[in-house]
Design goal:
Shape: elongated
Distance between the termini: 96 Å
Number of strands: 19
Number of domains: 6
Helix content: 55-70%
Largest sheet: 9 strands, mixed
Structural class: alpha/beta
Strand content: 5-15%
Number of helices: 45
CATH architecture of the largest domain: 3-Layer(aba) Sandwich
CATH class of the largest domain: Alpha Beta
CATH superfamily of the largest domain: P-loop containing nucleotide triphosphate hydrolases
CATH topology of the largest domain: Rossmann fold
Length: 1051
């Protein structure tokens, strides 16, 4: 708190400012509270005043208000204010009450009883009928001192006004409840039928209930319950799976259930069993506030797995080196960096954007497979996992079945992410405990004292089989003194027979928190801002007098680590949620701001590693500018760890930018920048092309006159459209992009922005224009393969490969040497785009028959696939799988079968997940049709190829139309009937009519072969010989290896 006079920080509990001596008022900090507000009003107060006079009226009001105030205080309510002829009271503030609603109802009825006694006396003495109207409403308000004067505590919010409206419609001598209050006391009160009343300020009637009586008393409850009760089947199943894992049948088990149902308790039992067997336990947990902080969960598991979580950096590095003595130094450096223990003197390897995660995953998986002992892995609360960790851990869980280990993943029913779909995973769903089980749990904690008769049943009813709810109810009873004694031997001082549990657990937990001393409560609130787990060092940046011992003793938090620094965790996430949400937004924002600044200052060199977390805190602090900057920094940093994480940070940045006021001078630029990067990187993700996002960006850049951002987005979109098979649109977008870039007139951007234009032209058959653009890019790069790295790694690598592909398509001399050189450049300077670039060498060339598939080609593509599997980029990996499958499909035997399986898998991914390799579909369909014919389904193959030819006829795709025609003619002539031969001749004639439409030589080459085959089918050997010779000569001239082989086999 700051001094209002000089701004100096005020010591806790200080009465005067140390700097200027000004008195400091002791005010109650405002906070959110769940309360029931009570309004009392004297019926016909003006008539009473006229009848008895001012002095007698004063006597009556004083007596009436004293009696009402006594009742309020008896039931632990707070008199907020007197209103002249009425009174306002609050139940649940300043000290939270779990049963605030029922207390207010009991107090209201007792007030009416007490006032009826007074009314009898007034009637005898003054001949006046004295009656009260009372109204109640429950909900969330802001409670605290208003202004700096003493006794200024009050509540504000819409719930206060509704209580007053309920009082206005109550009958004389009656108590009227709002819908919210009636819902909370429904099990404890007798209410009249719902009635609809018209109140001031509401257009429509609202529901109201007249309170008739209370059937029992409602108490706050809770005491520690640690017994493991029930779950016999679940535990037996888990133990059986653990036994199987120990003998080599590793498994993943999902433990699923709603909050508080016992997921963590069941898992804790398995952890205890594992430790009894001297089985290592490696665990991690997820937190709701870090679900957007990439790799947060995975890193924690890795640190635990390698045993470095409690070590300083140097000992941690030494331990890692001892565990991984034969690991590649580059991989070891990457792993150390991921774990946050890398020596700053060790340079971080410059690798492809997605290579990092793939290589780390491979190393972790290899380490896991190499371990011979059984391990129990635990991932708690997976429903809060961040996407980057989810991807890494899903890969890790995929190999658990090949080990002697067991992994337990806990999550809520609404979670359906990747961790629920591990191969061979088992699922154990936890439901509520039955009556005997929850009763046994409560009995174990309470004991069997006669005074507890009936209490167990009521607690079980309110807990509804949820063990955590029962634990909280009993703990709160003990805290309030309703229960006396200790665990297992309680007695009940009050013969209460009924207990109610509020609609949510918030009031019960808030009641426990409010019973702490102010210093402990401040500590808990500050910790809640940090997160579910927090270390003492960071906590001290938010609160000077941290009282952690009191919180541990109260079982609100637990100490979970002692070295290298003390670390604590909330006993349950709901405790943290209640502590966090009880604070005013302004208070939370201040704490988030201070926390973000502390994270920046704590280790400036490492701040960028925590960019996403810092951005989250600044966003929560309401510092939009800082939040935006750090989200953008997180996106830039995470490009080298995962494009999906980068895009998530950019999405968050765009959301923050949208929150700026319309008049903010930099708003439009900030809205444009992250959206530009999202659209520009769309080609690297799965899913359909983001047309809607691009259209929005066009509107924004158009309004702002920002041509450059639009051009960047267009550059990525050219790739996205082409990779997903939308060739004409890609070519048209390329034309628009070229015109836009020329209008910008900044040559340094041309290489960056035009890198995809040659590919777009080639895929539409415009080889000449594609070659012109490729030559233009090559000239601009001036031999620098790293120049223009932004949207893609190396524009020059792509340009030289594009030019080589163009020369291959037209059969230009030297294209093969060009392609080999380009492939080498891609491997060295564009590892991310290597598989995409090599599509020309190992995809297009193989499909067109320009390359012969032999052992060296298969080996090269297999190596490419292995590298892509370590990179983790969807586009690269899908492309490599397609290339490997295509090459294997050209062989025979098991290799062909494996290749076809890969092609089917790629096709499925394209059709179901809109993968970016949609351009491969026609080639895959072609291979599958040829395989169908080989397996005897000739008619099916012909139908498939006919459909493909019809669809492709209108598209100037590179060679696919001709390849499909060639395959169909081969199949028809292979069957050899007159009808088939005639159909083959017709197909060749259709293809001949299209000759000259494209610069690609393949169709002309294919026509020579097909004419030779048709001539042979008719028995015209001379004509067949002539066409074969011409076919062979052209194939040699073009350097098309597979066609040379075919021509020689025809001679």
């Amino acid at each position: 708190m700051a001094c209002p006079a000089c701004g100096n920080d005020i010591r806790a509990d200080a009465k005067f400012c140390d700097e200027c001596g000004v008195a400091v008022s002791s005010t109650a900090a405002a906070e959110y509270k769940q309360v029931t507000v009570l309004f009392v009003d004297v019926v016909h107060s003006m008539d009473i005043a006229a009848a008895v006079g001012t002095e007698r009226l004063h006597e009556l009001m004083s007596e009436l208000f004293d009696r009402c105030a006594d009742v309020v205080e008896r039931y632990r309510g707070t008199v907020d204010k007197f209103t002249g002829d009425g009174l306002m009271a609050i139940f649940g503030a300043p000290v939270a009450l779990e049963d605030h609603a029922i207390r207010a109802c009991v107090a209201s009825l007792e007030m009416q009883t007490r006032i009826r006694e007074l009314a009898d006396e007034v009637l005898r003495r003054d001949n006046i009928d004295l009656k009260l109207r009372i109204g109640l409403n429950s909900g969330e308000v802001i409670a605290g001192d208003v202004g700096s004067r003493a006794k200024s505590y009050t509540t504000v919010g819409g719930q206060v006004g509704m209580a007053q409206r309920m009082e206005s419609v109550a009958p004389p001598g009656g108590v009227m409840l709002s819908e919210s209050t009636a819902r909370l006391v429904a099990d404890e009160a007798i209410l009249a039928e719902r009635q609809w009343v018209q109140i001031k300020g509401a257009a429509d009637p609202v529901a109201a209930y007249l309170l008739q009586s209370i059937t029992g008393k409602h108490y706050d409850l809770a005491t520690p319950v640690s017994a493991f009760v029930g779950r016999e089947w679940e535990l037996a199943a888990l133990k059986a799976l653990l036994d199987r894992a120990n003998v080599g049948h590793g498994c993943v088990v999902g433990v699923v259930g709603p909050p508080g149902i016992g997921k963590s308790r069941t898992t804790a039992e398995m952890v205890a069993i594992a430790k009894q067997r001297e089985m290592p336990v490696i665990s991690t947990y997820c937190e709701s506030h870090t679900s957007d902080v990439s790799f947060h969960v995975a890193v924690r598991l890795l640190r635990s797995g390698y045993g470095v979580e409690n070590l300083a950096d140097e000992p941690a590095r030494a331990r890692l080196r001892r565990q991984l003595p034969d690991t590649d130094p580059t991989d070891l450096t990457l792993l150390q960096d991921e774990l946050g223990i890398r020596d700053p003197a060790d340079a971080l390897p410059d690798i492809a954007p997605e290579a990092r995660r793939r290589r780390i995953t491979a190393l972790v998986n290899a380490t896991m497979l190499a371990r011979e002992e059984s391990i129990l892995f635990v991932i708690e609360d997976a429903h809060w996992i961040d996407p980057a960790s989810e991807g890494l851990l899903a890969s890790f869980l995929g190999i658990v079945s090949r080990t002697r280990s067991m992994a337990i993943v806990t999550y809520r029913p609404e979670y359906a992410g990747a961790l629920t779909r591990s191969p061979g995973a088992q699922t154990i769903a936890l439901g509520p405990l039955d009556d005997s089980q929850i009763g046994g749990l409560i009995d174990e904690v309470l004991g069997v004292h006669p005074s507890l008769h009936g209490l167990t049943r009521h607690i079980a009813e309110r807990a509804s089989g949820n063990p955590f709810f029962a634990e909280e109810i009993i703990r709160d009873l003990a805290d309030r003194g309703v229960l006396q004694g200790e665990r297992g031997s309680y007695s009940c001082a009050n013969k209460a027979t009924t207990v109610d549990v509020p609609a949510t657990l918030q009031a019960a937990i808030a009641a426990r928190i409010d019973r702490m001393m102010p210093g402990a409560k401040r500590t808990l609130n500050a910790a809640a801002v940090i997160g579910l787990r927090f270390d003492e060092t960071l906590l001290t940046t938010l609160v000077d007098d941290a009282d952690l011992d009191a919180l541990v003793q109260a079982e609100l938090i637990d100490q979970v680590a002692f070295v290298p620094r003390a670390e604590f965790a909330f006993r349950h996430p709901l405790i943290r949620a209640v502590a966090y949400n009880s604070q005013l937004t302004s208070v939370r924002r201040d704490l988030h701001r201070r926390l973000a600044a502390a994270l920046e200052a704590r280790d400036p060199a490492m701040a960028v590693e925590r960019a996403a977390l810092i951005a989250e805190h600044y966003e929560s602090a309401g510092n939009l500018q800082k939040a935006y900057e750090w989200h953008m920094r997180a996106g830039d940093r995470l490009i080298f760890r995962g494009i999906h994480a980068s895009r998530l940070s950019w999405q968050r940045a765009s959301q923050v930018a949208d929150k700026f006021p319309v008049q903010h001078p930099g708003r439009e630029a900030m809205r444009i920048a992250p959206r530009t990067l999202i659209v520009a990187s769309d080609f690297r993700t799965k899913g359909p092309v983001d047309d809607e996002g691009f259209e929005e960006l066009c509107r924004l850049t158009g309004a702002a006159g920002d041509k450059l951002s639009l051009a960047v987005a267009m550059a990525g979109r050219v790739f996205a459209l082409g990779f997903r098979g939308r060739y004409r649109e890609s070519s048209q977008q390329a034309d628009e992009l070229i015109g836009l870039v020329e209008s910008i007139g900044d040559r340094k951007w041309e290489l960056i922005l035009l890198a995809g234009t040659p590919i777009a032209k080639f895929m539409c058959g415009d080889i000449t224009e594609g070659l012109r653009l490729a030559d233009r890019l090559i000239d601009m790069a001036d031999g620098d393969f790293r120049k223009g790295s932004f949207i893609i790694e190396s524009p020059l690598s792509v340009a030289v490969m594009s030019r080589a592909a163009g020369h291959m398509c037209i059969g230009a001399a030297g294209w093969k040497r060009e392609m080999d050189d380009a492939a080498a450049a891609c491997g060295e300077f564009a590892p991310f785009g290597e598989s995409v670039s090599l599509t020309w060498k190992y995809g297009l060339c193989v499909a067109m028959g320009a390359a012969r598939v032999d052992a060296s080609v298969v080996g090269a593509v297999a190596d490419l696939l292995a590298r892509c599997e370590l990179r983790g980029d969807d586009l690269s990996l899908d492309t490599a799988r397609f290339l490997y499958g295509l090459c294997l499909a050209q062989l025979a035997g098991p290799e062909r079968e494996h290749g076809l399986e890969l092609l089917v898998a790629v096709k499925k991914a394209v059709l179901q997940e809109n993968r970016s390799v949609a351009a491969s579909l026609p080639v895959i369909e072609l291979e599958l049709a040829k395989d169908a014919a080989r397996n005897g389904d000739v008619d099916g193959a012909i139908d498939s190829l006919s459909s493909m030819i019809s669809a492709e006829a209108a598209l100037p795709r590179v060679g696919v139309y001709g390849l499909a025609t060639e395959a169909m003619v081969d199949i028809l002539l292979g069957r050899g009937s007159k009808v088939d031969i005639a159909a083959a001749e017709k197909a060749v004639a259709r293809m001949s009519a299209r000759t000259g439409e494209s610069e690609i030589v393949l169709n002309e080459l294919l026509l020579l072969r097909l004419n030779a085959l048709v001539a042979n089918a008719h028995g015209n050997r001379q004509r067949c010989h002539d066409y074969t010779e011409r076919y062979r000569a052209m194939a040699i001239e073009c350097g098309y290896e597979a066609h040379i082989d075919k021509a020689e086999s025809m001679q």
